[in-house]
Structures are given as structure tokens and as C-alpha cells.
Amino acid sequence: MTKLTGLVEQREPLTFRFEDDGLVPNHPRWPMLVYPGAVTLPDDVDPASVFEDLFSTNGWGDGWRNGIYDYVHYHSRIHEVLGIARGTAEVRFGGDKGKVLNVKAGDVAILPAGTGHQRLSSSSDLLVVGAYPPFGTYDLCTRAEQHAEALRTIPKVGRPEKDPVYGSEGPLLSAWQDG
């Protein structure tokens, strides 16, 4: 396990709310959170393992290493965290009417269920680590026919007990309130 102490920087999250655009429902109550530069990635460690250890320490698992799909998609039955382990990417969040953000190594994005995401471009060395809270079911939604069902399932996905980066004291817990 990587020594995480000293690698996590306390960051105020950037918050983004997106409207339903007819294809991508986004989340009706909870914002997407981005922690720019939240994780320091030393040269002498595998950057992906830092994110894997951090997320699993905070109860987010089923991790993967890859990139971000180059087509618009969302997950209607589970939340997702994306840690940028290497490289840079231009990603549109929230669907076609959403917001394009440039993410880089050390950044973390936390997507509540329903949040659209699509890689528009990236450096050739892009490596992303993803993970999910301990409940929910992974699904991949890309089609208009999935929209009506997604509107029913997204609000039923509960709030995680821990922020994937900052644990039980993380900003996610106050940003994602019921009501």
C-alpha cells in the first residue's frame, strides 16, 4: 500500500450542476465535484496505485485503470470517481450542454449518478483510475431510450458514507445532502 500521508492536499471543490438535456439526465440534486490538484504524485511511485489506495481506504472500490470513453455516457445506478493518474484530457461533463474542463494528473472528479461525461481529447499518456462506492450497480447509458428509466433510478442511488478523497470529513458529505 502506498503511503498516502502527505500526498493528499486539502482542496475546496469546484462544483458543477447540469440540467437534463433530454439524453443525459444528470443528477437532479447533487453537483459534480472537482478537486484540482488534490493528489501529489511523486515520480518514484506508480501514480495509479496512489489513487487506488486512496479510494479503497475511503470505501470506494471496483477500481479500474484506463481512460475516459470518447462518447457521451453516464451511469444511472451508481456514482463514480475519476482520478487523473497521468497526462491531461479535455472532458465534457454534463452532456452536450454541459461544461468542458481540462483535467490533469492529480485532479479528481466525483460524478453523482446520471452525470454525463465524454473525453474530447487527451495526451497520449492519459491514465485514469476510476472507482465506485460500495453500493449501486454499474451500468453504461448512452441511448435516448434509457433516459426515462434513468430518471427513476438516479434519485434512488444513496449518498456514500465517505468522500473518496477526504473520507468521513470530505466536502462531498455536505455538498450531497438530501432535500
TrEMBL record:
Q: What is this protein called?
A: Cupin
Q: Which PANTHER family match?
A: BLR7373 PROTEIN, CUPIN TYPE-1 DOMAIN-CONTAINING PROTEIN
Location of the region described as Disordered in the Swiss-Prot/TrEMBL record: 156-179
Entry's InterPro entries? Answer: RmlC-like_jellyroll, RmlC_Cupin_sf, UCP019307_cupin, YjiB-like
Q: Which domain of life is it from?
A: Bacteria
What CDD domains would the database entry show? cupin_YjlB-like
